[in-house]
Amino acid sequence: MNSKILLVDDDADARVILNRVLTKSGYEVKEASNGKEALQVVRGYMPDVMLVDWMMPEMDGEQLARWIKSDSTLRFIYIILLTARGDMKDQVRGLQAGADDYITKPAPHQEILARVESGMRVQALHKEIQQLTRRVALLELAATVGHEINNPLNVIYLALDMMRKSLKQKEYDKLGKGLELIAETADRLKEIARKFIELRDPSTTSYVDNLKMIDIHKKKKDSRR
Question: How far apart are CA 222 and CA 81, in angstroms?
């Protein structure tokens, strides 16, 4: 699957030329003529990198960068601002707005491609970190479920075994104790399920083989205190 670029520039001729260069280099490219149009495209397209001209009607590149970086679902898109403004103050202003890189026009295509490739590497690393984080979270959840559920299940199996023996030996007066154990354990499982449902920002604790386990009985302390 090709890496995706959203090219945002009000200069149609510049878009055509740059689109051709990027496509030839193997990228999938979509275009927008200004910031507002880019906002209509970006969610459905979810580009890896945005090449954004600073000076545009409707919504300029600085405003677009601020908007993208303020959205939690879009803020990791790598934004490269393209502008004729070469002053250091403008570069700082663009980066403060949320741009990840800055190219002063006119720039050779080799430089633009190199900056795009750098952005793609950053995106690839970010995606790899996300995948590793999900795997670790799944392992922590699996360890927690196994630990929290295992003991109650053993109690239920023990109660059932006791009830089978009572039935076999016709000691019916002992069946009630087994039912009480099962009922108490069911309440315990229900409480564990409630804690999982209400889990928001949990702490972790060491398990086995350096694996972490979620502590569903203790909430994470507020770091601001």
Answer: 37
- 111 three-state secondary structure: helix
Helix (H, G, I), strand (E, B) or coil at 35: helix
Instruction: State residue 157's pLDDT score.
Output: 84
Helices (H) and strands (E) in the chain, counts: 6, 7
In this structure, how many other beta carbons lie within 10 angstroms of the beta carbon of residue 152? 17
Q: Is 223 helix (H, G, I), strand (E, B) or coil?
A: coil
What would the pLDDT profile of 196-206 be if each residue is shown by its tens digit? 777 666 666 66
Q: How many CB atoms lie within 10 A of CB 97?
A: 20
Distances (CA, A) of 197 to 66, 79, 91, 145, 168: 35, 37, 46, 13, 40
The CA distance from 29 to 172, in Å, is: 76
The span from the CA of 141 to the CA of 12, in Å, is 51
> Is the CB of residue 189 less than 8 Å from the CB of residue 156?
no
Domain 4-107 has CATH 3.40.50.2300: yes
